[in-house]
Amino acid sequence: MAKKKTGYIPPFTITSKTVHLVSEISETLGRFSSSNLADMTPMLRRGNRLRTIQASLAIENNTLTLEQVTAIINGKKVLGSPREIQEVKNAFATYEMFEKLNPLSEKDLLKAHKILMSALVDEEGRYRSGGVGIVKGKRIVHLAPPAVRVPALVRDLFAWLKGTDAHPLITSSVFHYEFEFIHPFADENGRMGRLWQTLILSRWKPILAYLPVETVIRNRQDEYYKVLATSDQHADSTAFVEFMLAAINEALYEAIETDQVSDQVSDQVKKILQILVKGPLSALDLMKALNLSHRPTFRKNYLHPAINKGFIEMTIPDKPNSRIQQYRITSKGISVIKEQK
Questions:
Q1: What is the CA radius of gyration of the chain?
Q2: Domains defined along the chain, listed by start
Q3: Long-range Cβ pairs for the range 109-117 (8 Å, 24+)
Q4: Highest mean predicted confidence (pLDDT) among 68-77, 109-118, 311-320
Q5: What is the pLDDT of residues 150-204, one digit of tens each?
């Protein structure tokens, strides 16, 4: 357990699994940093950030798709609830000021929450004034400490964060769990906890600011909540720390895999542009033109990369699921085609 001379020390144990994961992540980061992906292009950084925003919102029951999130950020009209659209805009604005936030500053935590929850709740940028809990079905799985204790608990947590000598991978995970346990805000504690862990990690390794760890958590959402409950039951964040380290490790491998197939993806994007330069097509017609039958492969390797890079766009962006939806090449995509000639 990490040691500190005075003050609050969150209960957790450094297990053999923890040590193994920290070692594996550090080794992977070494290879990651020496790869071309260490100098991510702006478009790749943007794509990962959009995936992070969409996944983080989806965990909290926002129904907007990646295409819709992308369209909103690009200033396009999207058919969706005003609240969900506002959540996307707020999340993007929060990440835009990411580099200006200090992970050791309680003041910056409140500032980030205010931006994240702007026009969504009454207590934006302020600690909750009432009791909160996490309910699954008819069962309360977590009852947060009384509101009157929140300011002192958060101050103690930040004091520990500033003084601990634990590894940043462990520190950030412990902070994340303790934050969720305190549940300092009336709403969006999950997103704030995940955001702040990423912020802590980004100050250790800047590349971690752009890893879409949220997508891994979204895919393992049930396990995420299960380990939170397990840590609650044991009054110890060890299980949660191990889960988060595994999620970070998985996100790293996914990023490296993306880097290794980047040339292939580039060729796939070029193929879709060469087809669309002749005129707009539906997703089904595009798949036929590409001789593809597996929709997930088409969306992951062709459609999403082309949209994220701004090379193609929807003809009906405010109705992404329209039966007459088509995709057309943008002026940016046309420039790519011209460069190939």
A1: 21
A2: 16-259 (1.10.3290.10), 262-340 (1.10.10.10)
A3: 109/154, 109/158, 109/192, 109/196, 112/192, 112/195, 112/196, 113/185, 113/188, 113/192, 115/90, 116/90, 116/91, 116/188, 116/191, 116/192, 116/195, 117/90, 117/185, 117/187, 117/188
A4: 109-118
A5: 999 999 999 999 999 999 999 999 999 999 999 999 998 999 999 999 999 999 9
Lowest-confidence segment of 27-41, 42-56, 136-150 by average pLDDT: 27-41
| DSSP three-state, residue 43 | helix
Give me the sign of the Cα torsion angle 166, 168, 174, 179: positive
117-147, pLDDT tens digit by residue?
999 988 899 999 998 877 767 777 678 899 9
Per the model's pLDDT, the better-predicted residue between 40 and 157 turns out to be 157
Q: Tell me which H or E stretch contains 141.
A: strand 139-143
Q: How far is 291 from 298, CA to CA, in rounded Å?
A: 10
Give the per-residue pLDDT at 43.
59
Tell me how crowded residue 296 is: count the other CB atoms within 10 A of its CB.
7
- Please return the burial class of 235, using the count of CB atoms within 10 Å of its CB with bins 0-12, 13-18 and 19+: exposed
Separation CA 305–CA 51 (nearest Å): 11
Show the DSSP H helices in the chain as ranges. Answer: 16-34, 42-59, 66-73, 82-96, 106-116, 150-163, 168-182, 189-204, 213-219, 221-234, 238-260, 262-276, 283-289, 295-298, 304-308, 331-340
Token reading at 141: 């799985």
What is the average pLDDT across 211-240?
A: 92
